[in-house]
Fold:
Amino acid sequence: MENPYKLTDELNLLDATTTRLYHDDFDDLVLEVAGRDPERGILVVRCFPISAGDRFIALHTCKEKELGILEDLAALDPDSRNALANALARAYFRPQITAVYAITEEHHIPRWQVDTDRGPRTFEIRSSRRDIRVLSQGRVLIRDADGNQYEIPNYRRLDVDSRALVEDQV
Amino acid sequence: MADVIPGVRVVKAFAQEHREVDKFESRSKDLLQGELRAARTRSLFSPLMSFLTSLGTLIIWWVGGNKVLGQSMSLGEFVAFTGYMWQFYGPVESLCRLNHRFQRAATSAERVFEVLDSQPDVDDAPDAKQLPSINGHVEFRNVSFAYEPGKPVIENLSFTVEPGEMIGLAGHSGAGKSTLINLICRFYEIDEGSILVDGHDIREVQLRSLRDQVGVVLQEPFLFNCSVADNIAYGKPEASLNEIIAAAMAANAHDFICGLPDGYDSIVGERAVRLSGGERQRLSIARAILRNPRVLILDEATASMDTETEAQIQEALARLVKGRTTFAIAHRLSTLRNADRLFIIEKGRLEEMGTHDELVALDGIYARLVHMQTEMGRIRAL
Structure:
């Protein structure tokens, strides 16, 4: 019997060779796809922000309607790639933690005092178990109580005191 | 504790906190008494051992001292003997302390081995063959089954379902609908008759090759505490990211997944507590779509959903069932309106069979159920 249903037909992939992205004078991201009117104020969403950040990027209108998915950032022309990379960097602002000075706890809420590549920060997280994700090769993602994300690229490479503090949490 | 903590809402809603705390205290006191008894025995054992070793030492000094004085043993030999003796006592005392730990471990091991040694009720026959890729032809031939001897749940059931046909299973609670679909998956062994899939008796094929080609969407889907993507790809771990997204799109799940903080990489939490019932159900549909099964079982897949969520899930299911042999159980009969045929099961027997119009015209059990549900709908609307 013939396969009743071709699953990959569901995908709304954009052809990288006919897709152009750029920022207009108002710094809004614009999407141009051959045969369609340009769309302004594009929002970018990573489908796999942790495991495949540069692949499967969904492009949404400002009303959050999905226009399509770009399978691979690298397949775009260099200008479009830069424009999309900038938009992603803005949408997924994630300072990198370079040192941890203290992790204290009050009323069961951990408070982290850290230094990041964007300057010193103090933040609270709701639960160490839920909001700290340890990935492969020592990569750690932390989401604070306000939803902001922080990243430690490899906690084993932090200074001895910072590493001891992080190891206590992970 | 295992019951009460997950059911804390019920406990609070029925104001039973004090009763549960009392129960917990009573059990804790029993445990405490037991531990105290064990500690008392241990506390007697240890001084007894010390007493015996000291007594042994005293005897050795008495006997050895006399021998040294009587010059039948040199002082050096005696000192060496007592030195070796103390080296021997240390391990013996450690062994005695080990006994307590060993007893505890043995009790735990007994329970673990009870589970490990249990034999599955349904297993592959020694000469079981691989079920080849199927079209989805399902036949029940005089099937009877009982969970307990003498209390049949399915009695002499016979029917044939063609590939791609959608069958709606309806009937009163306890009629045997869920048992019927459990038998298709061979979760239980039938007592009489045979179940054939594409002409193969399911008892003669390898379980894995059968279940690989059967997809199940349950009323309460179970999701594992891993990422959304891992849950979708659970039945097909080798699935590409393309396939995972496509399955989520087909299940109307892609939009809400993209709205999660980490998209497809979001962790769903233990028992998927971070997702709503409708979201969990759509992920389970995506999981079923990705496996691309030839036979599909929907067991109350849209029960206890609000109207909007049900509409989204129905839309996803419509894509899923297309071209597949489908058995759908639903108490809300309107959800079976797309079925090619309806089987009305009553006390384990196939009492009525036909399309919605045919069964309404028959004015039997189905017609009564439809009438009752229509009346209930009217009452609710008032």
The CA atoms of residues 228 and 345 of chain B lie 37 Å apart. DSSP finds twelve helices and ten strands in chain B. Chain B has a mean pLDDT of 87. The beta strands of chain B are 138-148, 151-161, 166-170, 192-197, 200-201, 214-217, 295-299, 325-329, 341-346, 349-354.
